[in-house]
Amino acid sequence: MASSALSGTHHRLLLPCFLRRLPRPRSRSCSRLRLAACHADTLLSSSGAQGPPSPAACSSASSAGGFSDWLLTNGLPPGKVAILERPVPCSRGGKDRPLHFVAAGQDLEAGDVAFEVPMSLVVTLERVLGDESVAELLTTNKLSELACLALYLMYEKKQGRDSLWYPYIKELDRQRGRGQLAVESPLLWIESELDYLNGSPMRDEVVVRDEGIRREYNELDTLWFMAGSLFKQYPFDVPTEAFPFEIFKQAFVAVQSCVVHLQKVSLARRFALVPLGPPLLTYKSNCKAMLTAVDGSVRLLVDRPYKAGEPIIVWCGPQPNSRLLLNYGFVDEDNPYDRIAIEASLNTEDPQYQEKRMVAQRNGKLAIQKFQAKRRKLFLKCCHT
Questions:
Q1: Per the database entry, which stretches of residues form a coiled coil (predicted)?
Q2: By three-state DSSP, how is residue 168 classified?
Q3: Which of 14, 28, 98, 215 could cross-link to 85 by cystine, CB 3.0-4.6 Å?
Q4: What is the pLDDT of residue 74?
């Protein structure tokens, strides 16, 4: 989706970014894309009052500008990207809430550094817990990194504008855990929307993940008590008393949609929330660009040329579409890692059942066996007898 080049000096600087509205995309027949864009705020709750379209558009531009100013003020070096916005059709309440996204601020070539975010602007467990040994203890026991990060952001949200992270949390709240297709994870779908998944294994996966989030919620008080940094800052805010489960779940899903898995770093820095990272970046399965930790910053090298105004794309990892839908709310039609589980079993009424079962067993297979059928492969690789 190419756009015209940015004018003036903005094509050389990240910020102040040049905000403008992109052409409205063609309407899609899938009502899911329209419905899912309009759930309640996630990390930074508001009064719920919404202005008319023009003030909302101004508010959107102001929001991006404030986020950009915060990044520069806190040490972000000038880069080669801009924060733009695209309109999102929304049937809940009939309001159009634009999504922000990171786009090329100038023409880029493959291998160019699009931006570098200093680690001082990256949220990791090292920052949240203040002690790497505590991070290892908690995340190898009952709590995931996502739960720890979600709890930290909820506490920071309570501070409002007094929090260092207020502009970033506000930007995450704007996105509400949605990717660039403006669709939330099924974990936040209402019951009538989940009916679309009837007959699919995905419905059961949603239930299992939801139960896992609830188990982590029940362990938040342990995290708060053991993590001295959190206990000292919020001695009277017991997590399960300060935050209802639904609020934690929304925060958890928002963190899940934008957390970055950094390589070749300590455990306490492995999972990171990176400003200018997802959900402002567009995920794809067939690209090679990754956010990487380099010399005290998180850097993005693009893997393809871009024209000014085009959305920047990053790799979402080797995940099947079922995982992409659950984590980020989208599927990738060109996903080379997509697969489906197919279950096959021997017929117990077959006169040769026992002989076939022994043959299968000698080849490392069971009488009831699941196979992973990968994309564009018509045959399963089974044992030859």
A1: none
A2: helix
A3: 98
A4: 92
Greater confidence, 311 or 380?
A: 311
pLDDT in tens, 90-134: 545 555 568 899 999 999 999 999 999 999 999 998 888 776 666
Q: What is the pLDDT of residues 66-76, one digit of tens each?
A: 888 999 999 99
| pLDDT at 295 (0 to 100) | 87
Distances (CA, A) of 284 to 50, 177, 256, 293: 33, 17, 16, 20
Q: Which residues pair with 100 in a beta bridge?
A: 85
Task: Collect all residues with Cβ–Cβ distance below 8 Å to 185 and sequence separation of at least 6.
Answer: 177, 253, 256, 257, 325, 326, 327, 328, 329
293, amino acid identity: A
Over residues 191-220, the mean pLDDT reads 92
The total number of residues shown for the chain amounts to 385
Task: Provide the pLDDT confidence category of residue 141 given band limits of 50, 70 and 90.
Answer: low
CA distance 338 to 325: 11
Phi and psi of 291, rounded to 5°? -80, 125
Cα 210 to the center of its chain, rounded Å:
16
Residues 6 or more apart whose CB falls under 8 angstroms from that of 253 comprise 42, 177, 184, 185, 187, 188
Helical residues (DSSP H) of the chain, grouped into ranges: 31-35, 53-73, 125-129, 132-139, 145-158, 166-175, 191-194, 201-218, 220-226, 228-233, 239-242, 245-258, 267-270, 321-328, 353-362
Domains and CATH numbers, the chain: 8-328 (3.90.1410.10), 339-374 (no CATH)
Number of helices and strands (H, E) in the chain?
Answer: 15, 12
| DSSP-derived 3-state class of residue 259 | coil
